[in-house]
Write a structure and sequence with these properties.
Two copies of one chain form a homodimer.
Chain A: H1 2-9, H2 16-24, H3 32-49, H4 59-63, H5 78-89, H6 112-123, H7 136-152, H8 156-162, E1 171-174, H9 177-192, H10 202-213, E2 218-224, H11 229-237, E3 245-248, H12 258-270, E4 273-281, H13 293-303, E5 307-310, E6 335-339, E7 351-355, H14 392-427, E8 431-433, E9 441-446, H15 451-457, H16 460-484, E10 490-495, E11 503-510, H17 518-536
Parallel strand pairs in A: 2-3, 2-4, 4-5, 5-6
Antiparallel strand pairs in A: 1-7, 6-7, 8-9, 9-11, 10-11
Chain lengths: 537, 537
């Protein structure tokens, strides 16, 4: 009772001294927050060994914890907020590091990233300008050059000259693959519709005048139907229009048909449509397939088209001696997107766009009087984003602590697992492999006993009905599995050559966690079988 | 010798067991990285008490540490990388938390942010979809609703219904003010040029067809000449064209002249130019001035124009009972940008765009088969960015631990300091106040003895020459002060009414660190006087 009174008295207050303490006094070792820090560290170890991908609260239940929308008038203690975070947020987050969480592109991180996360927050640098980033600016340029080197392997002399030269840009660091893709197509659009006589370029004069000046009736971007949705988003933002993202025909493996590509380019040009760019995919988000990059590069060179490669997922395949040939031709691209928070194993919020020509990023250059002045070292001159954190430190550290050979192990492990899983599925009676493994992404579906024969014997209409039923089963299994919280795969809808234009729901696995192994794959399949059996009951 | 041999043998290796350790074993308490974590914590305390804003290495010297552009073949130990980070990166970063670093918008953070930085990294959630973020999704929606509430103060009932409703969006969380501004103008453009009969809207059909359909000759965005450079960038990206960012006349205090604004709208419409939006500024980046928001809102309503307010800097002024009336009319805006990594005191990489109409963000909605399906709770449906980290946890915590009253103290402290500094400058013989303080940003310049009288007596040409000389002095002082590393102010160029169209270089201070006080302001002025005296020698 006395204690309660005491606690009631000791309320957080909004005076200058309290505020000063909030800004100057580190949390004590025995504080709730330090306790959570340690707990998280332990928890991650637990997630890594046990198989729990998330708690059991459903979304409606969770939403109830976040209903209050008034900003509190009075401050509360850090410990109070920490208690809230622990019970309502941390404990109800998704264990993206769990080896049985194999449904999305967010995976385990090297442990030292946790310390770097704290260090980065503490330093709070801003990469938009050198006055708020200092050593972080050349550090970021180095990281960009290292990845440029991985893709384009220009001479040591070239990098010696350009990597730290403020007048050149080998690439731009950003928050992720979407921004990298938008930036690349922005560069491509501004290059296609550059200044010419009185016309000051699309950048200054806008899309309408640009098309009138160049006597065009529209713009287009070409990519296979497996292109990431950020490309459609890019077309919206950049004024191209989402309808003008042209889906190029693919072969049975979802890879761009280069003859169709070239034909499409001709048709568009006959219709007076300007080609902003052709996009090749190195690792489609849904199936992990890789377009025939070298052949696409040839078409683009012949046709004088800008060639961008979305290697947000698959770029790091270049680390593997065994598999890097899958990306042959990537060094012919005008630009390449890579996500560092995917297969470079750094925390969320890091992507890059790399450019073959170190002058191309000047096509999107901006200036202001108080920063990013012409001739300055400020990286904010040539980026879609403004203020940005020092995430490059994470990438620099991962590249050094893992090394090329460490990444090679990770890549080989993942692709190996995808092949193992494909084998398990092919050998089973009750699963169907829906796409072949190229990289470490695989799709498949469950086929209940009896359905397999029915599928192979069915006529067109019957097939459609069977697939409709199977789609329902796939969706139901995935939802139940997700709710159970032990293992997790995602799902998507694909057009598969054997089933015509009917969209087929499939499970989608992404095998990038180094701790995922064959026993976990078996566990995932077993759980799906069991859920299916229960659905049937 | 034996020890050396041992160390040489004990090299990091790229085998599976090493890799497993990197992913599963936390750094020990006595590891180099844990040591740096502790050091950073101590260092920040040191930066907060001493007056050092950065080390003394010059940019060329720093660049030499980041010349190697090959990705290392072999892994190195975390401890080796940590040594590198400590000596070459951490020690050569900018001490943005130092109270004498008053030149940019990056300031000290509450200490608990360091722990949260580690926790966020450890959880590695991805807000693009609920399957990789779970509780973080309703948490982010709550934070958005809290800031929406701060700006628009709709009823409790309204927020009860909309805040967690997956079909509505009160705003979007993003990496910063630039993305918030682009997103807002993207919404504005898509609203102006929406679907109509056969025309499927600018989003689908692109800018060229949109303008033809609506019989327009171009597009425009209107803002005062003090608008942030991200608005010009937005015009480039969105296909409007940078030349079509129309600079509206301002009064002597740099505030939009509303009569000119309305006249400009008429002129543009007569020339068949579609008005994408009018932008009001709540705290210009260079001078901290606030546009007459309520009057601008009236013009926009009368003219049927989309009204966006860039409150990236000044938004949190709403926390102050004393100063919030400066932002009167903000609740009439269609959208408002706020940077959380500025005056909400969270780490770099957090901004928001809030929307008055919870349906407006559907104008930029995107879908995919494997995520952000129609009707899903996935926040990635309506955002420029794709994958995003759980920064909302930082904002949620700051809003609770500081409370409305804590922020009020911070805001009042900063504006108070700006007025104090203005007073010190007005009382001095050797400084000139170049803009009046509105918020906590102030510009001024140094005037050497004798120049003041010369300035007031000078004819037009003489004045021009004097200012040219003063511009050189301002730039020289700022550069020397920056290189000295004890105190830091930034600089910019302004047009000042008393000097016609000549651009005047000025010092720019941003007073947002709660630990900055009058004695530091005195120190800054004294150092500038001393540098000036030495320049003169």
């Amino acid at each position: 009772m006395v204690r309660d009174l005491f606690l009631n008295k000791k309320k957080a207050s909004a005076d200058y001294e309290t505020l000063r303490r909030v800004f100057t006094a580190p949390e004590g070792r025995s504080s709730t927050l330090s306790h959570i820090e340690k707990e998280i560290s332990k928890n991650i170890q637990r997630f890594l060994s046990q198989h729990i991908v998330s708690g059991d609260a459903d979304p409606e239940e969770l939403e109830r914890n976040f209903k209050n929308t008034s900003i509190p008038e009075e401050p509360i203690f850090v410990s109070e907020q920490a208690d809230f975070l622990l019970s309502k947020v941390v404990s109800q987050s998704v264990h993206t590091s769990s080896p049985s969480f194999i449904g999305h592109m967010t995976s385990a991180l090297p442990y030292f990233m946790l310390s770097l996360g704290k260090i980065m927050t503490g330093l709070n640098q801003n990469l938009v300008k050198i006055e708020t980033s200092k050593a972080f600016t050349p550090l970021e340029r180095q990281v960009i050059a290292m990845l440029h080197h991985l893709i384009y392997h220009f001479s040591a002399d070239y990098y010696q000259k350009t990597a730290q030269d403020r007048y050149n840009s080998l690439g731009v660091f950003c928050s992720g693959g979407t921004v990298a893709n938008i930036t690349s197509l922005w560069v491509a659009r501004n290059r296609l519709l550059g200044p010419d006589g009185d016309f000051r370029g699309v950048s200054n004069d806008g899309v309408y005048r640009a098309l009138r000046h160049y006597n065009l009736e529209g713009l287009a971007v070409l990519v296979s139907k497996l292109g990431h949705y950020s490309l459609s988003k890019s077309c919206d933002i950049l004024g191209v229009g989402k309808r003008h993202l042209v889906a190029v025909d693919t072969d049975h493996e979802g890879r761009v048909n280069v003859d169709s590509l070239e034909k499409e380019i001709h048709l568009l040009r006959e219709a007076k449509i300007g080609i902003v760019g052709v996009v090749g995919i190195a690792g489609t988000t849904e199936t992990g397939h890789v377009d025939p990059l070298a052949d696409m590069a040839k078409v683009c060179r012949r046709q004088g088209c800008y060639f961008h490669i979305d290697a947000s997922w698959g770029g790091p395949t270049l680390f593997s001696e065994k598999h890097k040939s899958l990306l042959n031709g990537i060094d012919q691209a005008d630009s390449v997107s890579i996500d560092a928070h995917k297969q470079l194993y750094v925390p969320m919020g890091a992507g890059l766009a790399l450019f073959r020509d170190h002058q191309n990023l000047s096509l999107i250059e901006q200036h202001a009087q108080y920063v990013i002045r012409s001739g300055s070292r400020d990286l904010g001159k040539r980026s879609l984003e403004g203020s940005r954190p020092g995430m490059a430190m994470m990438v620099h550290s991962a590249l050094h602590v893992l090394g090329r050979k460490g990444y090679e192990l990770l890549i080989d492990h993942g692709i190996g697992l995808a092949k193992t899983l494909a084998g398990m599925i092919l050998e089973s009676d009750d699963f169907e492999l829906t796409t072949e493994p190229t990289l470490n992404i695989l799709t498949y579906r469950y086929i209940p006993p009896g359905f397999k024969d029915a599928l192979s014997d069915a006529g067109e209409e019957q097939l459609r009905n069977l697939n409709q039923r199977l789609n329902q089963i796939t969706v139901a299994i995935q939802k139940t599995q997700r709710a159970n919280g032990k293992t997790f795969v995602s799902r998507t809808q694909l057009e598969l050559p054997q089933y015509g234009d009917q969209r087929i729901d499939v499970f989608r696995t992404v095998l990038a966690n180094p701790l995922t192994d064959e026993s976990i794959l078996k566990m995932v399949l077993d759980e799906q079988r069991q859920i299916a059996a229960e659905l049937h009951d």
